[in-house]
Predict the 3D structure of the following.
Amino acid sequence: MAKHLNTMTDAVFVYSPDQLTYKFSDEHPFNQKRLQLTMTLLEAIGALSPEQIVAPRIATDEELALVFDRTYIDIVRRAGHGYATVEEGEPYGIGTEDTPIFPNMHEASASIVGATLTACDYVMQGKSQHAVNLGGGLHHGFKNKASGFCIYNDSSVAIKYMQKKYNARVLYVDTDAHHGDGVQFTFYDDPNACTFSIHETGRYLFPGTGSITERGTGDAYGTSFNIPIDAFTEDDSFLDVYETALREIVHDFKPDVILTQNGADAHHFDPLTHLSCTMRIYQEIPRVAHELAHEYCEGRWIAVGGGGYDIWRVVPRAWSYIWTEMSNFKQPHGPIPKQWLEQWQRESPVTLMPNWDDPDPLFTPIPRKKEITEKNKQTLEKALHTLRHNSL
């Protein structure tokens, strides 16, 4: 893998207001206002300064074509400028209820991809050990079809880009409550990319994929890992499964770089999922990734956002923890800054959470907790069986 030695910073925060133009409608659950809410919260605690923010570039058609068919790119561009009908777009997932047409949708989507590629270059060229693009993480996009609010899959492009430009072995880690299907199947036959997704079982939730039997194909068999956890899974079980699996997968695959997708929709408050986690998992998920990046990848860690549909009470706190971990800022606890609460409470349809940590208990205990925990443990054992067997 190519290495570049330059003056290095701990972490960069890739952001442009252009990312806010990725907007389907005022009523659509995917709402990039979460980026503003997160950034202003980080600024309120003194964790994010202007010199840490890097402006991204826009991905070129050639870069998008590392993953996407040219015909699909053309349809997205034409639809966003009023030159493609819903009937033309629907076979490509454009103009559906999930991914309706909106003005300049190609430019907005290419901006998201470009931000993730900017993060990749900063890390792979040694300008920064870590980089985050919270506007990214659109993991459901396929080479010729939009899906699940995702038009261009920035993580898939980023992995192909790092393979081509830096000859990198990439480990992709997805902790979104929805299965990272678009990324997994893009690299399903590629032994130099490893995908690991922990998600709510597809029996109850979109996209319905992500079973433990999806392990890759051909030379890539054993480089796709899925742990579909049961509905109503709580913190302890989630973290046990996540940390156990990730440590073993990293040790076995030995990546050059770790790319994490950080959907914040496993929280109990999320309106689109059925998991019962609290803010505790969002404190731990980046901590483990950070530790393993230093242990195996000389610190190379890129993080993107993802799902997260309680944009007021959950996402800003959850995503703040990614940046405070990356930038070695002390993990915040205690009260949320008063000025941030006052700034945003007027707009919020729900009462904002007054503290960084959730109340304990956050919800009424679930009678099936022991059964769910045991089932998740069994799923973990099955998911790692081949890896463990091969390492004997």
